[in-house]
Each structure stands twice: as structure tokens, then as C-alpha cells.
Amino acid sequence: MMSPTPEPAIIAWLMSHDVSIRWQTLRDLLHSPGWEAERAKVAESGFGARLLGCQDSDGLWAGGFFVPAGFSGADWKAEGQPWTATHFSLSLLRELGLDPECPAAKRTVECLSKHSMRWDPGHKPFWMGETDVCINARVLLDSMYFGKIDTVPDLLQVIMNDFLPLDGGWNCYTEWSGSKRASFDSTLSVLEALLEAERLGFATKESVSARLMGQEFLLKRNLFRRLSDPERKPANPDFLLLTYPRRPKYDILRALEYFQKESLQNKSVPDARLTEAIEILRSKKQSDGKWLLERVSRGREWFPLTEGVGQPSAALTLRALYVLQWWDGFHRSDSIAPDT
Q1: What separation, in Å, do the N-terminal and C-terminal C-alpha atoms of the chain show?
Q2: To which H or E segment does residue 48 belong?
């Protein structure tokens, strides 16, 4: 169930932006059959074409899997996490909507499959991931999206081996800190991958059970609150700041998008415990119908994808409208699931 189409002025504004915004506007807000033809342009124009133009001849970006070749600890301290290496560039192409059947995508998959470079740590080929569960979740998503499915079962099992039953989630810092507590960021990253694995038929009974427990981890906390705090304060104030590009950053919009996809995929009504996050998202809408960028990830990138913090964001506006369209469609029919 969906609510009415947004105002024509907002649609026109969205359609004036990058092709990655246009095709999703056509598909998600206008439900137009022309979205596939528009998506095919991602490889030829806009951000997608620019990012493909930054690719090395051997299929990598910036000469590395996770960080650019030669990137040092001193560089990290000075600049923060870089976003130009292969792992993040490929995930960004997926989010922009690069057609996985286009020649550029096919060539990239083949090059990465044959490349002699290995992850550090882990010493595995690119499509097998490394030891960090957040990285492995994104590699799993990219593998399924770009059709590199022969590694999916093994990588899925590696992710399941990192499940933390105490909280019912995941934490990418467990291997370094020994913590047995789940984190918001890691749990959401894995949930996104497990839900897509279910859609494509790769899920196991164990992975479905773990995904449902991970959902509950977030729902019990209303997507952003600290459960152990008597005052239920936000676990991290940044979770309430809308972020683009997504990268591995957690915010309430990204979490709501997961629950939207889960609802649409499994034909289930949304849980009432999402209400608080929904209303916070709604409150961020400006008088002109747009949402502002509130946070960006520090670090090296190929080129800016935004106008800057505090400016209207087409990507965030598109995503927020789509989530609210889904939610309001159920709300108007009084179909919200009872709080439990």
C-alpha cells in the first residue's frame, strides 16, 4: 500500500538531478515502466560513468581492496577512512544502480575474480571477503547484485559464524575487542545482506532465524535508543542525522529502508515500534518539501556526490519520500501491527 505521489514540483526537482536519482524516482515514486531504460544510462553518464572512469585497468579502484595502494596509518590519522578503493567504489556503483548485466559490470566481476591481490587480513580473494563482518556483509550484497553467486553460500556461512546470540546481532569489533555485544551499525549491515539472500533463495533456516533476532535487536531499541539506559537516550546522536552517501554509516533512514524492504518483500505490515523513527524522519522535511543533508563521512573520495551539509539533498529526499509513502499507505488503512 502506497500513499499519493509527491508534489509535481518535488518530482521535477528530483528529475533534474543525476541519473541515479532519476531512475529511482521513476520506479519508486512514480511507478513508471520507463525506469529500466533510465537506469541503463548509469554506466554512460553522471556519477556512475565518472566512477567507472576512475577504475584501474586491472579492475581495481585506487590499487587496493579496502584502502588505496600506499595509504598509510599516518594518512588514516590525517584524513580518516578513505572511500576510493575497490570495496567502497563497487558498493557505490551498486547503490547508484549500475546495471549488473552491462559490459563494465561484467568486466569488473571477471577482473576481480582473477586478481592476484588478497584481503588483509584474511588473505582471501576479493569475492570471499575478509574477517570483518561488516565488510563481508557488503561483499555479500555486491556478490549477489553483480551475479558472482558461486561464493555466496560460503560467505553467508562466514557471516553466520560471527552471530552474537547474547544480543541477537553482530559487531565488527568483536574480533578486535572480544565484545559479545551487538552493535547497531554491524547488525544493520548484516540484516541488509541476509534479507537479500532470502529474496534470492540463498538463505538457510539458521540465517532466517538470525535475521529475525537481528530485527528484534533494532526494534527493541526503536532503531536508535540505548536499551541499557534507564532514560532510553540515543545510543549515538549521529544515528538521528541523515547521511549520504550511505557507506557503512548507520542512521534511522537507512534502518527504516531495511524494514520497508522487509515489509514489501514478505508482505507484512510494519511494526509499530518504527513509529518514533518515522516521525523524526517526517519532522526533518523542510517547508519546500525537501530534506537536508545532515552528515557526511570524513575521508578521501573520488568526487563529491552532495552539495554539502545543510543543503537540500535529492538522494535523501527521494529515500525519505519513498519510506513515508510506504508507511503512510499502511497507516491510513489502520493496518499498523500492535506494539509488543
Answers
A1: 23
A2: helix 46-53
List pLDDT tens digits, range 48-106: 999 999 999 999 999 999 999 999 999 999 999 999 999 999 999 999 999 999 999 99
pTM for the model = 0.94
Q: Look up residue 62 and give its three cell numbers.
A: 585506487
Q: Is 21 left (phi over 0), alpha (psi -120 to 50) or beta?
A: alpha
SS3 of the chain: helix, strand, coil, percent, to 5: 55, 5, 45
Q: Find, among 286, 293, 292, the residue nearest to 7 by Cα.
A: 286
The model's pLDDT over 232-273, given as tens digits with 9 standing for 90+, comes to 999 999 999 999 999 989 999 999 999 999 999 999 999 999
Give the sign of the dihedral formed by CA 282, CA 303, CA 77, CA 116: positive
Cα→Cα distances 127→27, 112, 265, Å: 30, 8, 26
Q: What is the rounded distance in angstroms from the CA atom of residue 298 to the CA atom of residue 311?
A: 17
For residues 64-101, one letter each, b for 16 or more C-beta atoms within 10 angstroms of the residue's C-beta and e for the rest, the string is: bbbbbeebeeeeeeeeeebbbbbbbbbbbbbbbbbbbe
Closest alpha carbon to 172 in 157, 155, 189: 189
DSSP reduced 3-state for 185:
helix
What's the burial of 128, exposed, middle or buried (CB within 10 Å: 0-12/13-18/19+)? Answer: middle
Contact 170, 186 (CB under 8 A): yes
